């Protein structure tokens, strides 16, 4: 039963990961901490999971032809460089006994910032915005990649939950293309980040691979759901997901972990029901038009 629950957890998180282009780590890491994993165990396991979901999602995004390869490569390589700075920082926190408090607090500040960003973005009129000139956007992409890579290895996330909102708000990339390009950058970052931990942290590979197995299925579903949503809806939903995850981390700090788990489950349930309705409505309209 325990193995099946981890398989189901991996599948559900990866649907959200594939849809939002966030790798899934920023949801899985706090979930694992809520379930009793130490911060470092949660980080390493989450990075392993994100490798699997990213690979699966990228295949689907390639078919959709929505990846901006140059942007994804710049973001990914910048992020890979930053992972080497982050690893010593994480071990420093652990040596001082600060990791149990510092890592959740990092999450809270970042999630609060990006939740407000995406909710504000979703409320705007979605008139097309022009991408900044290449000479300036490359610098911004490098800075975004460096920041995402550092946070990825520090918090055990893919970096996508940082890359997606920042590329939308600061580079003017449309949400659907930001999601696709983010997955490519995330893969480069998490592979490098995971290798930083693989030989120094004890990882339960059995649980890790069960999570990945569920993720390989769920991520394909998540990517396919993108076509049923408008860019504005994606931004609003991503902001809501950040808020739900933020509250769950706060609940962990005040020893009310079960409330955080319930909140994330409620968000996932609403998202899945909404998506099912959208798929059925679109199929019915398609059948009527034939």
From TrEMBL:
InterPro entries per record: TM_pro_TauE-like, TSUP/Inactive_protease-like
Chain ranges passing through the membrane: 41-62, 74-95, 101-119, 181-201, 233-251, 257-277
Keywords: Cell membrane, Membrane, Transmembrane, Transmembrane helix
Domain of life: Bacteria
Primary location: membrane
Membrane disposition: Multi-pass membrane protein
GO terms under cellular component: plasma membrane
Database matches in Pfam families: TauE
Localisation per UniProt entry: Cell membrane; Membrane
Keyword Transmembrane set for record: yes
PANTHER family: MEMBRANE TRANSPORTER PROTEIN MJ0441-RELATED, MEMBRANE TRANSPORTER PROTEIN YJNA-RELATED
Family from the record: Belongs to the 4-toluene sulfonate uptake permease (TSUP) (TC 2.A.102) family.
Record-given protein name: Probable membrane transporter protein
Organism: Cytobacillus praedii
């Amino acid at each position: 039963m325990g193995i099946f629950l981890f398989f189901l957890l991996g599948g559900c998180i990866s649907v959200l990961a594939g849809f939002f282009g966030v790798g899934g780590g920023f949801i899985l890491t706090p979930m694992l901490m809520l379930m009793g994993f130490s911060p470092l165990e949660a980080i390493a396991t989450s990075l392993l999971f994100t490798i699997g979901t990213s690979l699966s999602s990228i295949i689907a995004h390639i078919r959709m032809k929505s990846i901006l390869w140059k942007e994804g490569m710049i973001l990914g390589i910048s992020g890979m460089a930053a992972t080497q700075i982050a690893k010593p920082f994480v071990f420093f926190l652990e040596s001082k006994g600060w990791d149990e408090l510092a890592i959740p607090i990092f999450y809270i500040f970042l999630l609060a910032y990006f939740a407000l960003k995406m909710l504000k973005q979703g409320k705007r009129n979605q008139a097309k915005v022009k991408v900044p000139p290449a000479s300036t956007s490359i610098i911004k992409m490098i800075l975004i990649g460096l920041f995402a890579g550092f946070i990825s290895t520090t918090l055990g996330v893919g970096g996508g939950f940082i890359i997606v909102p920042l590329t939308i708000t600061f580079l003017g990339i449309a949400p659907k293309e930001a999601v696709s390009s983010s997955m490519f950058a995330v893969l480069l970052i998490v592979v490098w980040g995971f290798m930083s931990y693989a030989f120094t942290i004890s990882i339960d590979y059995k649980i890790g691979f069960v999570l990945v197995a569920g993720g390989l299925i769920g991520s394909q579903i998540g990517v396919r759901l993108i076509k049923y949503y408008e860019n504005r809806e994606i931004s609003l939903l991503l902001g809501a997901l950040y808020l739900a995850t933020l509250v769950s981390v706060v609940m962990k700090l005040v020893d009310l972990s079960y409330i955080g788990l319930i909140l994330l489950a409620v968000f996932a349930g609403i998202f899945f029901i909404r998506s099912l309705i959208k798929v059925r409505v679109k199929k019915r309209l398609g059948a009527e038009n034939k």
